[in-house]
Design a protein that fits this description.
two-stranded antiparallel ribbon, elongated
Length: about 190
């Protein structure tokens, strides 16, 4: 049976839910009123073994599908596209931080503030609080840099969207084969 990668992803999630929901009781409680002790223990053992086989079959199917998906991802180039998306997102984070920076003060403003500090009488705040008020702090990021960073973020978003569209197409059009044994297990569980 062939399925596309998108369906394979959904099937893997369903298999994981089925595995986590498969309960296997490894003990029973017997009382003095239990009629047939041997039969009760035998039934509990059988239930435990059935649940164990179910979990093993589901786990085998899960990892067979996962291996097929991994091979298909590599063959179809999906891994490369995913890496490209991550690289773009990393670059976007850098440029987003730059685009939110405070813009530097103009040289004229800085000079005016420093002149004001120089010409202030000595009994002002700097005399009381120290050199903290004798400095002018400014960003070194220019408006052009901020504008360029914002433009780059927009371009990177477009590139990321194009790659995500390509990923969607690859996930829909790339097929994997589910073995007959795994197909039988998945149908018995109601997953296929």
């Amino acid at each position: 049976m062939e399925i596309n990668l998108r369906k394979a992803n959904a099937i893997q999630a369903e298999i994981r839910r089925a595995i986590s929901g498969a309960q296997s009781k490894d003990s029973i409680s017997l009382s003095e009123f239990t009629q047939d002790l041997a039969q009760e223990i035998l039934n509990a053992k059988d239930e435990f073994l059935v649940a164990l086989k179910r979990k093993v079959a589901l786990t085998t199917a899960l990892y067979n599908v996962r291996k097929s998906v991994a091979n298909a991802n590599a063959t179809a180039g999906i891994n490369s596209v995913l890496t490209d998306v991550q690289a773009i997102e990393a670059e976007m984070a850098i440029y987003s931080a730059v685009s939110n920076q405070t813009v530097s003060k103009s040289l004229a403003e800085i000079q005016a503030r420093l002149d004001k500090i120089k010409n202030a009488p000595q009994d002002t705040r700097s005399a009381i609080y120290g050199d903290r008020y004798n400095n002018v702090d400014t960003s070194v990021v220019e408006q052009q840099t901020v504008d360029s960073a914002k433009a780059r973020v927009k371009e990177l978003k477009r590139q990321r969207q194009n790659l995500q569209d390509k990923l969607l197409a690859l996930n829909v059009n790339t097929l994997i084969t589910v073995s007959a044994a795994d197909e039988e297990v998945l149908k018995a569980e109601g997953i296929l």
